[in-house]
């Protein structure tokens, strides 16, 4: 009997535990109602936000699509558009170019911009005839542009304009705003870079010229001008810059193979030969003395130094009398200069 009673009690206890588990598993109806109301409130609060986000995205997509439709045909037209009018630099800039130094052309003159008409029936384009002044702007262009192509669109040109680094002055300063008048030509009296080109992807620049956005010109497209690519070096390197051809007033160390403050430069200075003009005069008047000065140092590069001076002299009509040796030397005296 005792065993049976214990078994009955155990069965009742097991049934009670199972019932408790079933009761705990049954969800609370009131809790479900609260959760449902909370979820409904959250959705109602989120709905305006979702509507606004969706609306903004749809509007943005429509605007972007409209712009593409408007711009793509224009870019396609520009890509194939050709014009008989183009800007060009009369002469290329003299290289190398240093920061904070005036940019000149290869002949030592100010750079010039010319508007040419390529459909004038002549072999070489001539300056275009313009009825009213045209404003032109000089800009810095990426050295990689336009690659191997000779044609480009205005948008492509504008996309490759290089702007100054943050916190720096404009890259190009001076006469960056020009006006083409009757003869369709403008001189750039002062122009210089304020920063080197080492920080750019191509490590090089070009100088470009375009019709200014502020210009009232409304005729056919005028193709932009660009120079050849070049690097812009820090002005500190100009302290030892050579010139080719050298100029009369240049210090004599500007000639090739004469190092500034070097042995030969010191010997020339001691002999009162300070400028290229002094060097040329001595080469005409007293070649033996110049030869002696050169041989005191080294003879391997004598001919190179003399040839440089000789070629420079070919670019001058005369050498002005600076020390009373003579009134002038004309180019007829060139044959009498015996190269060392």
Automatic annotation (TrEMBL):
Domain Calmodulin binding protein central: from-to ranges? 248-296
Specify the Calmodulin binding protein-like N-terminal domain's residue ranges: 85-235
Annotated GO molecular function terms are: calmodulin binding; DNA-binding transcription factor activity; sequence-specific DNA binding
Where is composition skewed (Basic and acidic residues) in this entry?
A: 1-22
Lineage, top-rank taxon, reads Eukaryota
Q: Which GO terms describe its cellular component?
A: nucleus
Report the record's Gene Ontology biological process terms.
regulation of salicylic acid biosynthetic process
Show the Pfam families listed in the entry.
Calmod_bind_M, Calmodulin_bind
Q: Where is this region: Disordered?
A: 1-23
PANTHER family recorded for this chain? OS02G0177800 PROTEIN, PROTEIN SAR DEFICIENT 1
Record's protein name: Calmodulin-binding protein
According to its UniProt entry, this protein's organism is Dioscorea zingiberensis
């Amino acid at each position: 009997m005792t065993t049976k009673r214990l078994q009955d009690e155990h069965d009742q206890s097991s049934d009670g535990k199972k019932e408790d588990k079933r009761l705990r598993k049954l969800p609370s109806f009131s809790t479900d109602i609260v959760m449902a109301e909370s979820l409904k409130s959250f959705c109602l609060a989120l709905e305006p936000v979702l509507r606004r986000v969706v609306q903004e995205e749809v509007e943005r997509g429509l605007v972007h699509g409209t712009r593409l439709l408007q711009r793509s045909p224009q870019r396609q037209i520009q890509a194939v558009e050709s014009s008989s009018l183009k800007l060009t630099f009369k002469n290329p800039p003299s290289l190398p170019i240093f920061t904070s130094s005036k940019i000149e052309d290869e002949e030592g003159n100010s750079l010039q911009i010319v508007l040419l008409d390529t459909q004038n029936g002549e072999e070489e384009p001539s300056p275009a005839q313009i009825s009213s002044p045209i404003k032109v702007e000089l800009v810095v262009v990426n050295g990689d542009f336009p690659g191997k192509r000779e044609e480009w669109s205005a948008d492509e040109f504008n996309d490759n304009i290089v702007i100054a680094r943050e916190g720096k002055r404009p890259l190009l300063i001076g006469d960056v705003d020009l006006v083409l008048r009757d003869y369709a030509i403008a001189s750039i009296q002062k122009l210089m870079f304020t920063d080197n080109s080492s920080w750019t992807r191509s490590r090089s620049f070009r100088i470009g010229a375009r019709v200014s956005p502020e210009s009232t010109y409304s005729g056919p497209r005028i193709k932009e001008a660009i120079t050849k690519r070049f690097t812009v070096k820090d002005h500190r390197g100009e302290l030892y810059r050579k010139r080719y051809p050298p100029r009369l007033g240049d210090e004599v160390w500007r000639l090739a193979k004469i190092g500034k403050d070097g042995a030969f430069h010191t010997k020339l200075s001691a002999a009162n030969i300070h400028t290229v003009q002094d060097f040329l005069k001595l080469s005409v008047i007293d070649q033996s003395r110049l030869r002696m000065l050169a041989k005191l140092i080294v003879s391997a590069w004598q001919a190179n130094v003399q040839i440089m001076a000789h070629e420079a002299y070919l670019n001058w009509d005369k050498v002005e009398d600076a020390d009373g040796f003579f009134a002038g030397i004309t180019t007829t005296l060139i044959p009498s200069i015996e190269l060392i």
